[in-house]
Every structure is written in C-alpha cells, then in structure tokens.
Design goal:
With 150 residues, this protein is of the alpha+beta class. It is 28% helix and 36% strand.
C-alpha cells in the first residue's frame, strides 16, 4: 500500500473518531440539561409578617423534612426535641412550625432550659403545635439567603 492510501485511511479514521465523539456528546439526557425549578423559596406570611419558607413536594422529600409535637412540660411550659432548636447568627433561638401545606414559619423562642434531648421554652410555641426536627437547618439556610434551592 502506498503512502497516499494510508494517509487517506488515517484521515477517515480520525474523521470517524471525531464524528463518534460529537455524537456521544449529544447523548446527554434532556433532564440533565434542562434547568430544574426551585424547590424552596423564602416568603413572608400575609397579614402576620412572619418569615417563612415554602417547599415543593420534591424539596420536602430532598431534605427529609420531619416534625414532632410540642408537648406540655413542667408547669405547662412548651417542650420539644432539641433537634428542632436553631441558632440565628446573632444568637437568637428559633424553630420552624408548619403554617400550611409545605409552608413553614420561623418562630423565635425564648429558651428556659435544655435537659438532655428536650428544650423547654417560655415563649414562641405552644403545646399542641408541631416543630420541624429534621430539615430545619435547610429551612433556615433558605430563609437567610444561603441557598434557595433545597
């Protein structure tokens, strides 16, 4: 085989490799190239001015959101699991309380005592309400502008 046919064959092989690579690059799934809609956003509850976060069902699933009841502790004070207690950058304490379907309102609480895994507060929530115990940090992050897609 002379040099000319070898060069032509090499050129065809290079062209085929480039075409194959270009074809594979276009094989990405459409879902991966389509931007997803945000799964959470900070809002203010109408009429109350309470800072809140609204999640989509996917957002709630992604963060594994869970709640627990606020119970009546000693003297009827509100008591809830320590996992629900959040600390604001300025040191204030808060919890998130369900305020509607996939809506969670931030309530500032006044801590009276922390005993083991339980927090007793003097204000901010009442026995019978529920507080977010899993996913609360993510809600606070969205509320404070750390991320708006949870």
């Amino acid at each position: 085989m002379s040099d000319m046919p070898k060069m032509r064959l090499a050129g065809l092989l290079v062209a085929a490799a480039v075409a194959a690579a270009a074809g594979l690059a276009g094989c990405a799934s459409p879902a991966s190239s389509t931007p997803q809609s945000p799964t959470s956003k900070p809002v203010t509850l109408p009429g109350t001015g309470t800072p809140s976060v609204v999640l989509t069902p996917l957002g709630a699933q992604r963060i594994g959101l869970e709640t627990a009841p606020v119970s009546a502790g000693p003297g009827g004070a509100a008591t809830f699991p320590y996992a629900a207690l959040l600390y604001e950058p300025n040191g204030q304490t808060a919890v998130y309380v369900p305020a509607g379907t996939l809506t969670y309102a931030r309530h500032f609480v006044q801590v009276d005592a922390i005993n083991g895994g339980q927090v007793t507060v003097t204000s901010g929530v009442n026995p019978g309400e529920r507080v977010v115990t899993n996913g609360a940090e993510e809600l606070l992050g969205v509320q404070n502008g750390v991320g708006e897609e949870t």
